[in-house]
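Quick log. Single chain, no ligands specified.
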Amino acid sequence: MPSKRKVEAPLALVQEWTLPAAATLGSAVRAKGILLEMRARLPSAVKKSLDVTGVVLTLQMPEGLEGEFKTASSIVSKALEGIESLPVIPREIQDILSISTTERHRWLKDGRLPSAGTRTVKLRGRAKKITFHIFDPRRVEEVLNEDMVSAWREDDAIAKTEKRRQAAWNRKLVREEKSAAKGKPVADGSAEDSARHQLKGWAEFERSGLLR
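-> predicted structure:
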């Protein structure tokens, strides 16, 4: 005997809220984060009644639940007041700025992405809690609008090139020091290079970079 098909009640009770651009910062991940923040404040029985499409939060319930709908609607409306100030979490800032986890860690460490504090949460189904940095949405917006990420990447590329050049230069000095210690001529330098490495302490002076 075929099972009876469950007939769902029409979702006649509907309310929508459009999230401001200053809150989402153009990020679907951020919009989903705001949805989860709103759901966390709702009673368990009605959490899934709230969803997001694009930048629009929608609360939908069937007829007969007017009381629950009114309560949930009031909670969401109240929670959305000042939503533009909701701290930005790691996965959101990476989506907003289109940066990698490595870049986030590097720029957080050197202060280019200043932390606005930390948050500790317990993941569902796990006993262990995790702590992560959060960010000021207005600072994130500033970084986005002024395209600071492009400048930071250029700076990092220059620093990386300089670090490699310095490492290569240090390796060259080590080779020359070893050759000088064995009384061998410097293979890849001029007579002047060979002569100066005979001077006591000259290699250390060069390695310090004062001549460059």
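The chain has three domains: 10-85, 87-146, 158-207.
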